[in-house]
């Protein structure tokens, strides 16, 4: 399972630009493959939510996932295929490890809840005000496991999301979308690699097909394919903040990197020069910074705080409005689950039709025709 967060050295702000237009990043791809568990986890329990709101319901997590996918599609802009793979039941060799992790996670949560309850009683006895507990559907990350109610509803929500995108987004209308959900055995990256290998064996396969992989760590290197690229996401802002697990996708769209560099260049003389000690820059043992200059820089950035929060609010409202245009139909399908069957995967064709298959092999055969 990959450990993705966000990509690109610089992303052109393209919120209002159609994804059917040429890619402003200068690279065109035919197929985009998403290891969905690398998307689900940061949307389920973000380490630092920039909007100040942690998800508390399945619906909020689903909206975060849809935003995440939208951003990746806007960046890569696949022209033929979008393949989304969710981790299914793991192979036996890894199953024991996963079970151990989940038991440990459940025990840690039990201890944390007991400690919280103890503190609540202690504060009540001391006469301190104790806020009531908020109901939270997504407090336990163990529900991100094949066979749970959360994964069932997520699969239905993704099917509805795919249908809406194929119907309403010009950038999606000419591509095939394959969803391999948690009912298909195997981990996401393994399902993706198996699909790519089998596609290459078909006589109709175009050897010049350009692939873009997201969330696959270094497995893509084993393909020895000149047309395979991987989406990576270590950004200068993450390094500067010392956070190697920075939240995905939002910072580039808010021009955070541009803002930092603009302030740094504009106020360079007022800062007194570089924030690092240039006299000791060649020291191989460690780096040295001038804290007084860093403090000035942080204060200068802080002056933009109101504008930053205002922009974040505008962007979030814009995304929510876009996603809620068809919210009624989405909620009906998620709640009723009427369209869900015992099938394990869904392929949505460019005309909006869907076919369902019990195995990955059937997808590959149909896709190659």
Automatic annotation (TrEMBL):
Keyword presence, Hydrolase: yes
Report the Pfam families cross-referenced here. XRN_M, XRN_N
- Give every Xrn1 helical domain span: 255-342
Region of interest (Disordered), ranges: 335-369
GO MF entries? 5'-3' RNA exonuclease activity; RNA binding
Q: Can you quote a single GO CC term?
A: nucleus
Q: Which UniProt keywords apply?
A: Exonuclease, Hydrolase, Nuclease
Name of this chain's protein:
5'-3' exoribonuclease 3
Q: Does the keyword Transport apply?
A: no
Domain Xrn1 N-terminal per the UniProt entry, residue ranges: 3-217
Q: Which CDD domains match?
A: PIN_XRN1-2-like
- The annotated regions of Low complexity compositional bias extend over 336-346
Offer one example of a GO biological process linked to this entry. Answer: nuclear-transcribed mRNA catabolic process
């Amino acid at each position: 399972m990959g450990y993705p967060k966000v990509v690109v050295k610089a992303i052109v702000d393209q919120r209002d630009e159609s994804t059917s237009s040429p890619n402003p990043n200068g690279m065109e791809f035919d197929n985009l493959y998403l290891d969905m568990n690398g998307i689900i986890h940061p949307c389920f329990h973000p380490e630092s939510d920039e909007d100040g709101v942690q998800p508390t319901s399945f619906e909020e997590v689903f909206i975060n996932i849809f935003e995440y996918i939208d951003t990746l599609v806007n960046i890569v802009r696949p022209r033929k295929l979008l393949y989304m793979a969710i981790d299914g039941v793991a192979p036996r060799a890894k199953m024991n490890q996963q079970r151990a992790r989940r038991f440990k996670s459940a025990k840690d949560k039990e201890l944390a809840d007991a400690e919280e309850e103890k503190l609540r009683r202690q504060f009540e006895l001391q006469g301190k005000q104790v806020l009531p507990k908020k109901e939270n559907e997504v407090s336990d990350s163990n529900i991100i496991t094949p066979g749970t109610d959360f994964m069932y509803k997520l699969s239905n929500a993704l099917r509805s999301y795919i249908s809406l995108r194929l119907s309403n987004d010009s950038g999606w209308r000419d591509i095939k979308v394959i969803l391999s959900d948690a009912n298909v055995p195997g981990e996401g990256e393994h399902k993706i690699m198996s699909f790519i290998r089998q596609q290459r064996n078909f006589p109709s396969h175009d050897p010049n097909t350009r692939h873009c992989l997201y969330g696959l760590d270094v497995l893509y290197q084993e393909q020895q394919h000149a047309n395979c690229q991987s989406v990576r996401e270590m950004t200068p802002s993450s390094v500067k903040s010392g956070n190697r697990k920075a939240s995905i996708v939002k910072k580039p769209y808010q021009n955070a990197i541009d803002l930092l560099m603009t302030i740094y260049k504009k106020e360079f003389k007022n800062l007194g020069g570089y924030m690092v000690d240039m006299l000791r820059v060649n020291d191989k043992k460690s780096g040295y910074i001038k804290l007084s200059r860093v403090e000035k820089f942080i204060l200068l950035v802080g002056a933009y705080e109101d504008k930053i929060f205002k922009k974040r609010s505008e962007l979030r409202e814009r995304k929510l409005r876009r996603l809620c245009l068809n919210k009624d139909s989405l909620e009906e399908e998620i709640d009723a689950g009427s369209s869900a069957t015992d099938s394990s995967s869904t392929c949505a064709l460019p005309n909006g039709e869907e076919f369902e298959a019990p195995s990955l092999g059937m997808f590959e055969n149909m896709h190659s025709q």
